[in-house]
Amino acid sequence: MQKGAIASQVHLRLALPCILFMLMSSLDRANISFAASAMNAELGFTPTQYGFGAGILFAGFLAGQYPSLYLFQRIGFRGWICTCALLWGFSAAALGFIQTHAQFYVLRVLIGVAEGGLAPGIVLYLSQFATERERATTFTLPALAIPASVIIGAPLSGWLLEVQHGLSMSGWRFMLLAEAVPTILFGLLALLYFPNTPAQARFLDDEQRAWLAANAAQRADRPRTNDWSVLRTPIVVMAGLLWFCLLCGSYGVIFWLPQIIHSLTGFSPLIIGLIGALPWIGVALGMYFNARHSDRTGERYWHVAVPAVVAAVALLSAWQMGPGLGAMVLLLVAGLGLGSAQGGFWAIPTQLLKPASFSVAVVGINILGSAGGFVMPQLMGIARERSGDFAAPTLLVVSVLLVAVLLVAAIRVLYRREIAALPVSGRDG
């Protein structure tokens, strides 16, 4: 039996389809950045109000995570992901018909509630199928959906904003509606496709299923507890803060980059979408190749810290350089750093957490981390409105990335102390 063949099948049959759902969720979450210029003018949003609307999604995102995990455990992955996709899909489609600020805020919260448990749920789901050796790559593949949603969604959104659709609605409304429809359709198809456990994975033979169930990074038959005290442990708190900083970097760029490019160039929505996709090509490449390298070497900490420094330096340099080819290249490098740091992240907490507290800890880390999506767009909106340019928002992103580097160092010190305290026979390097 070839173990590599099992991992390849898991990646192809499960991780890649999970990318599709993560991609649609990220697109339905972030496409307002492309609608923003026209939507803000039509509905009268100020930069601060837009930043609040972009970020308020994450209030629902945070509130929905533990209820979503409970639903996952009650009905299984298949029914759970269908339910989530239908709720956020219909809410995202309804954004195309809003008339007031309040409607915008309420629908953004509903999208957040529906998407709140998606990322930790997929991590928990794939942990039943991922071996220890492949965990960084397996957990990173679905995360590739975030940059992919911009690489694909940026030019797609730009095109939909300009296309002659024949409906009596603004281009930004048509874009939001059109991009929500696939979520609803694929949510229904999920009921027929995904196995809930390794025992139901019909793409593997009996021997492969038995081996996978015995060797997964978080085995399905391992005991689970609701030990909430794990949320107070230094590892979980610091990992959550680290994820917060890394996501602050990404969401700070996602929700504001199209407006930054527009302010610098005045290009059409389609051209802005094409240029805006460039940094996310770097994010995708960094996520995948850094995760693969981390798995091959077994090193986890430098694979997060170094890319975070690279991203911070590149963003700062791009701002100082101003509009032009050099700044575009630096944004690509910044994206490479952001993606590399995120691609290496989840291998750290899954290495440190005990199986019995894994589910509670993962959702706790994701809640604290996802708060970055709530906080960062609003802070950038306030900084943009008060400063009148994008200098202050850029420095804000750079600062949180440098804090991330300090947190990696602190987690590494804590881990080495725990390893030193173990008996020699209990150390795994």
What is the end-to-end distance?
27 Å
- Rg to the nearest angstrom? 21 Å
SS elements, strand count = 0
Low-confidence spans: pLDDT under 50, at least 5 residues? 219-225, 425-429
Average pLDDT, to the nearest integer?
79
In short:
The protein has 429 residues and is mainly alpha-helical. It has one domain (3-426): MFS general substrate transporter like domains (Growth Hormone, Chain: A). It contains 19 helices and no strands.
Describe this structure in words.
With 429 residues, the chain is an all-alpha fold. It has one domain (3-426): Growth Hormone, Chain: A (Up-down Bundle). The chain has helices at 3-30, 32-43, 47-63, 65-94, 101-115, 118-127, 135-143, 145-162, 171-193, 206-215, 234-254, 257-265, 269-276, 278-297, 302-321, 325-345, 347-352, 358-387, 391-421. The model is unreliable at 219-225 and 425-429 (pLDDT under 50).
